[in-house]
Amino acid sequence: MVDLAKLGLRPEEGTDPKAQEAVFNSRMSLDRPLPGESLTNDPNSPYTFEKAPEYTDRTEALEYLFKRFISEDVYRSLMSAVLKGVPIMSLAEIVLYKGFTEGKWNPDLIMMLAEPTAYMIMALAERADIDYVIMPKDKEDEEEELEVFDRKYKSSDLKQIDSKISKSSLPKEVLKKLESMPDNKSLLA
């Protein structure tokens, strides 16, 4: 264990010095794989994710997931997690990543399965009459800070700026199109 004070390093403000020391020690530890070590594995016994995936078709993978979700043991644990407030997207990520490590699909198929998997879990929760959370709320999401033209604004400030935009600054055709556009709020936004 290395003492940060002996090295002349001070912990960052607002962080626990012991936690920062533990992170430093884990980064400096030699108890980890060497770069390129994975290339020395025996090619006759690859990891499951190094082989061809079991599912390459999106529909077949979704059918597999649905059958798995409605099996008795998985259904109970899945619905109890939803009931405890675990976000739907977190559950979908866990299920899809586990399938990847088992060699069920590749990362590209994970991206195509993410949304339908979340919808399946939501549908099962609705059928069980369970209220669910889609995404966890972050404190940062409540009041976002955005940078526009090298100036930082809070999201509430940008709404006020938007209302002050001069109508003459845009062509009439663009204004008509903007006013006629529907307010699209996606489920995952």
Task: Break the fold down into its secondary structure elements and pairings.
Blueprint: H1 17-28, H2 58-70, H3 72-83, H4 88-101, H5 107-127, H6 139-142, E1 145-148, E2 151-154, H7 155-163, H8 172-180
Antiparallel strand pairs: 1-2
Helix pairs in contact: 2-5, 4-5
Structure notes:
The protein is mostly helical and 189 residues long. Among the domains are: 52-127, no CATH class; 143-175, no CATH class. The chain is 50% helix and 4% strand. It contains eight helices and two strands; from the N terminus they run ααααααββαα. Strands 1-2 form a two-stranded antiparallel sheet. The longest helix has 21 residues, at 107-127. It is extended and about 60 Å long. The chain starts with 16 loop residues before the first helix and ends in a 9-residue tail after the last helix.
Could you spell the SSE succession in H and E letters?
HHHHHHEEHH
- Cα distance spanning the termini: 44 Å
**β-strand amount:** under 5%
Name the average pLDDT.
77
The total of beta strands comes to 2
Number of contiguous helices: 8
Regions with little confidence, pLDDT below 50 for 5+ residues: 161-165
Shape: extended
**Multimerization status:** single chain
Radius of gyration (Å): 25 Å
Q: What is the helical fraction, as a range of percent?
A: 40-55%
Structural class, by secondary structure, is: mainly alpha
Characterize the largest beta sheet: strand count, sense, and whether it forms a barrel: 2 strands, antiparallel
Q: For the largest beta sheet, what order do the strands appear in spatially?
A: 1-2
